[in-house]
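Deliverable D5.2: sample structural annotation.
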Amino acid sequence: MIRPLGDRVVVKALPLEDRTKGGIVLPDTVKEKPQKGEIVAVGSGRLLDSGQRVAIDLKPGDQVLYSKYAGNEVKIDDVDYLILRETDVLGVLE
């Protein structure tokens, strides 16, 4: 696994629906990039100029929405992950 540094989190994208609500099958070429995923690891937090560290308000297992073009994609053991800054996470799904 990968351990993110600072204010970064590792997200595993949740699978996209391959059918519309009406039952039409969507090919991969028309599917949009996922924007929903599950946090699998979090960094130690953002470091302030004063040297104090601000903890990340996310934890592994949280399902989140994130910015569409944010982060860096990596593949580890044939699994796609996204490394994001905490500020790229828009919200937690409850």
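Annotation notes: The first strand starts at residue 8 and ends at 13. The chain has one domain: 8-15+25-93.
The annotation will be released with the project's public dataset once the embargo ends.
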